[in-house]
Amino acid sequence: MNKKPVLYLQTDPRWKNTDYSAAGESTTIGRAGCGPTCAAMLLTTLTGKEITPADTCAWSLAHGYKAKGQGTYYAYFKPQFAAYGIRADQLSWVKTYGKPEHENHDRALELLREGYYLIACMGPGNWTSSGHFVVVWWQDDKVRILDPASTRDSRVEGDIRTFRSQVKYYFWVDAREYNEEDEDMTDEKFDELMRRWLAAQGDKPADDWAKGHIDEAVAMGITDGSAPQRLATRQEVMVMVKNAARG
Questions:
Q1: Judging by DSSP bridges, how do beta strands 167-173 and 117-122 pair with one another?
Q2: Which of 33, 52, 190, 197 registers the highest number of CB atoms within 10 A of its CB?
Q3: For residue 130, what pLDDT is reported?
Q4: Full-prediction pTM beyond 0.90?
């Protein structure tokens, strides 16, 4: 499962009117910066640093990746992510627009399930009248979309068949090592993990494996040793961890 990406909109007042022009043209991030905005979403998510569309569009311009009269060259994504030590590349040069059954869509889905993010270049239809980049991610067994130009349901929860019909190209971003965090730990999940661990101790009396540890923890001020058979709540564990750190 992917971590939900940070959402940036290219139309955000903070940068929508910022210049994003190749030589011989005049345009802005709000009109043409969808590609670098997608990159900014994922770079911020993966690095934990605030990397805005203004930053990524400036990088694109400085390195010659703005296409005159169009958007951003496809070659932009690989070096942009590499600048932050993250692997990325184009999935295939085969154009899949109008080909919802093409194998590239199945490969893209496999990558999502493996923990990659995708940036999809969309063709005319639900997402654009010409060309547009969107972020694609995976959560709860569903394909999710973040559109840098819209938050409308039809563009972030779009019909999967329509989506596959309108994707021209995919670009993958290897986020596997960044997404290997545990899911949110609830009291119920913690209790279940503790039950499993206790079960693994077999029929040994608690004193055989716990008393020495409890005595040591009491001596360190981590716990008062009361109710040693009761499962600790998440809050209690956090207090014990903080006490241990102070020790």
A1: antiparallel
A2: 33
A3: 86
A4: no
